[in-house]
Structures are given as C-alpha cells and as structure tokens.
Design a protein that fits this description.
Blueprint (H helix, E strand, L loop, with lengths): L2 H5 L2 E6 L5 H11 L11 E6 L5 E2 L5 E2 L5 H4 L4 E5 L10 H12 L3 E5 L3 H6 L7 E2 L6 H7 L4 E2 L5 E3 L3 E4 L2 H16 L1 H11 L27 H9 L7 H8 L3 H12 L3 H19 L4 H8 L4 H12 L3 H6 L4
Parallel strand pairs: 1-2, 1-5, 5-6, 6-10, 7-8
Antiparallel strand pairs: 3-4, 9-10
Helix pairs in contact: 2-7, 7-8, 10-11, 12-13, 12-14, 13-14
Length: 321
Amino acid sequence: MDNKKLTQPLVTILTYDGLCMFEFGIAMEVFALPRPEFEHWYRYQVIAVEPGPLTTSGLLSFEAVYDLAALEQSDLIIIPGWRGIEQKVPSTFKESLIRAHNNGARIATICSAACVLADCGLLAGKTVTTHWRYIEALEQAYPGIKTDPNVLYIDQGDILTSAGSAAGLDLCLYIVAQDYGQKYANNVARRLVLPAHREGGQVQFIPRPVNFDKQAGDIAPLLSVIKASLDESWTIARMAKVTHISERSLLRKFKATTGDTPKNWLVLERISLVKELLELGSLSVQEIAFRSGFMTAETLRHHFRRQLGVSPLSYRAQFKS
C-alpha cells in the first residue's frame, strides 16, 4: 500500500462568497462523507477563501473556517466553481494557494474554477478545460492559456480541471481511482447511483443548432421526415425533391435553419439516435448501424468516436448498472 493510502490525504474543499452549491456538494459527497466500508479514506477540511459571513449562489448565508495557513497543508485542494471568469482572486488567498501548490498540493477545479488557477499564474505549460460556455471568456481574460473545450476533464499531474458541473463528479471519481484504485471509485459511484467512470476524453456535448426562423422554416417538415426515417438514404437530391426546391436553395435554407450543412446535420441526428439505442437497449453495434442509417459498424464507430471521443461500447458501458 502506498504512502498516500497510509497517511490519508488531506482534502481541502474551498468556499467563497457566491459559492456554487452544486459543485460544492459534489466535493463534499465524494471526499467528506464517512466511509466505514474502507480501511483508509481521505481526511477533509472546509476553508473559506475570505472572512465571512458568506452567501451561496442562491443567497443563503453561511460561515466557514477562514484559515489559509491550514490550506497550505493540503494534499488535495478542490475549488468548486467560481463567481465569474473575470472575477479576481483575493490576494491573500492567491498567495496561500500558490504556496500550497509549491508545497506539493494537487489542485482540482470544477467548472468555472479554472479561472482561479489562471489568475494565480499556475497554468503555464498546462492544458486545461472548463465549461464550454466559459472557454472563450477564459481565453480572452487570460491570453496564452491552452484550453481544450472538447473533454470532460484533464489531468496534468498537479493540476486537474473539469468541464461543466456534472463533469466534476467524473473528475472526483477519477481522483479516487488514482489514489485508492478503481474498486474504491466504483464503490463511491455505486452509492451515488452513477456509472463508475466516464473517460476524460469524452466530449462535453454535441452542438445541434436548430433555429426555425420564419425565413427558413419551410424546410422544417423535411427535417421531421428525415428524423423519422434516419435508416434511409438521404442525398441532397432527395432532400430537394421532398421540399420542391432546387439543391442550391436547399443548401442555403438548410444552413439558415440548422446552422449546419445537410451532411453534418444528418450525422449528428444519427449519432443522437445511436446514443439512445446504446443507452436503452442491447442491440449490436451492427444492428444500430442499420437502424441509424450508418449501415456498417465501421462507419458508425468512425463517426461516433469522432463526435464523442469514445467508442460506442465504452459509451454503452457508462449506462450499465
């Protein structure tokens, strides 16, 4: 058994004025609950980054211990969100966080909290992620930061970052697996009634913009027909024939309506159906390929991995009890 297990790593969960409650709850649920079923587990402390009283994002009042000296003794620090990408970090907290990092603490961020590390200058040479909505703002506020918007979480050794709130759960379970082994992580996930693990490289979401405005809405019936028959062959010529317009007009209206080309839109619709079939049933990949219009398992796998970053079977495994 390694030293981390023997010494029970000290996890510090941070709080601040405007606290993101869901992200905070994630960290508490994973690292702070008593787990008598384990021989060894984490120690934890909750520390405020500024003196109280403080409020949550829902304007509830609370108080937490304000002891930045204790922060510097941490083995792992969890920052559960932040109050805004461009909101500066209090100088005293910043100094303590940098010292804790220099002392060997790992720092894990959930959702928007990556900006805290950016403001502390701790992201040099690192690749990080955050919620897809905040990627552009983070890059604008801190030029030169290397980001990856297409993953759930990233492990850079001493710095770990995650995307949207739920991805924080995936990151926390990943940390447990790294520290104590997959068996421990599976046990925690089971109590949370969650899949044991989502790969960090899975994309955050698949954008499917649909804007049925008045100018382009006359192809809306076509989209409904295609969705109801994704297993059929849909060429540009056939789409144009169904809508009784020229192929050129179809391409223009399709772009205005969906924000995408017919080919890309069709792939995303088929991927959406594939996801549903993988989640709810036990059909083979080849059967799903027929039903979704990809026709071959090889084609399905190519598009699925390209869009989501994982294989169909890996995706299905996430939804097995």
